[in-house]
Structures are given as structure tokens and as C-alpha cells.
Input
Amino acid sequence: MNIDEVVLNFAPGTLMILNVVLGLIMFGIALDTSPSDFKVVFRHPKPFIIAILAQLLVLPIITFGLTLVLPVTASMALGMILVACCPPGNISQVLTHLSGGNVALSVSMTAVGNLLYIVAMPLSIAFWGSLHPTASVLLREVELDPIKMLLEIVLIIGLPFVIGLLLRAKLPVFAQKVQPFVKWFSLIALLGFIVGALAGNWSYFIAFLGIILLVVAIHDAVALAIGYGTAYVGGLGTRERKAVTFEVGIRNAGLGLGLVFSFFDGLGGMAIVAGWWGVWDIIAGLTLASLWAAHTKRRTGSIKGDPSGKGAAVAITSGDDGIGGSAQAPGSASPDGRAS
Output
């Protein structure tokens, strides 16, 4: 059985449900986004610049290299490229919080990053996919239209995001009350959808289980390492390194899965890679966040501490989560990790 020739079973009506769930995820992100989150990026651009370069440039380049050295087929390689070109997933904020990272920075990066990805995602998929020696053949066969994909992405993530921002601005109290429900419902629905999609095509998943588990685990670990590595090289503090690590390492594979069925007819390798990534991403992220928090607490007495004195930032914080506001405690570090 050749995974490149496998087409997963997926009802058109189910795809509409997936698009609604993805829209709810973006709506939930927007409800948790305030104008101050965008201002944070402009006031302290260094962490965002590091994260966006890692996502738009470093991650696709290294992913491209992985597709050449790992034992993957053309459709699996294209699935890896697709995931690498997806925007960050909003569970990155949850993981950043659990690890003791800078949640306000995570929210800011996710908000601004998702806006950029509306345009960047279809262009990145078309660019990197067209360069691949075998995946480029699949792109030519499906005649991928980046403009059409852009319009689809605008409808799936752009429009709900704008509506959420407007609702947050006009009805902030209402937005604050419904945001937790929307956020967790959409995340659970997405995870359930991905698990359902894999279960519905279980024979294909089992047939290629070994290679899929290996490839996704390696790719996911590399993505997280890129986030940490670029933040470390950029001189960011501990809390900011945690935020950037999850911002780069956690991808919205659910959106990628939707695009596989919309533009690639449920191509087996792509769909299975994107589907399993959506499950494994959460497992690996929760494990890393828990271990990282425990490690930091063991060394400093707090999951937000840093023995080097860098990254003890409480800048752009308001409350325990560090969301909103712009107060900074004396002797703390700025959001880019510099002590002040």
C-alpha cells in the first residue's frame, strides 16, 4: 500500500463542521486579545521578531531539510511542510502558563502572528512545496491556487478573528465571560474531531503507524527546539524563552487538516501527518510544560524564576497570568529578557 495513493474518507458536511470549529478557535483567541496586546509587540518588538523569524523562516527551512533526510513519501513530506507553514495554535498560551512563561507575550505573539499568517501561510506552502523534489509533483497535480487558499484562510481564521476583536472592543464584559467557554469548547472539539478522523481511517493509520509516529515526534521536537534555540540565542529571559518555545513549536495542525481536505482531496500522507500532529503536539507540549515548570521551581523556588537573574519579568502583566496592563516591578527584566 502506497500512502501517497491513499485518500482518507471524509464527508463534505464534516469538513464544514471542522471549519466552524477552527473559526471558533480564532474567535476565542480574538476574545482574549486586547489593543494592549498589539501595543506590547510594538513597544517590545524583539521577542516577536525572534518568534516570527523562527516560524516563517527557520522552521520551514529545517522542515524542508527533514523531509529530505527522513524516510518519508511525497505526501508525507508535503504534510510536514504544511504543518510547518501553519500559524501557531492557541494552546501555546495554555502551555506557556503551565510552564511559568510570559503569557502576555504569548497572547501578543499569537494575536499578531495569526494576522500575518493569513497571507503568509498559502504563500509559504506554495513556495516550499514547489521546491521539494517529490512533493512538487503533488502540488502540480492538484494545481494549488495560493489565492484561493488565501480566501479560504481569510474566511476560516481572518473573519472570526476580526469579529472577536470587535466584540471584545464593544462588549468587553460579555467577551470576558464567554471567552473561556469558547476557548475550551473549541479546543476539545478540535481534538475530538482529529481523533475521530484518525479513528474513521484507522486501517490506514495502523498501516503506517511506525513511520508516522517517528516522523511527527522528530518534527515536533525539532519545532520546539527551534523555538527555544532562537529565543536563547536572542538573549531572551526564561519566561520569554518559554513563551517563544511554545509559540514556535505548537502549530495549528487542525487548520492544516482542513486545508488537506479542501485543497488536496484528503491525500493520505498529508492528512495522517497533520491529524497525528494535532494529537501529539498537545501530548508533547503538556509533558514539556510540566517538566519545565518543575525544573524551574526546583532551581529557583518558583516556576517563573530564573537563577541567572534574566527573565524574571513581570512586565506587561496584570494579575497572575500576566495578561494585559504594562506595569513592571523594580529590578525585573523587560519582555526581551534584559534586566532593568
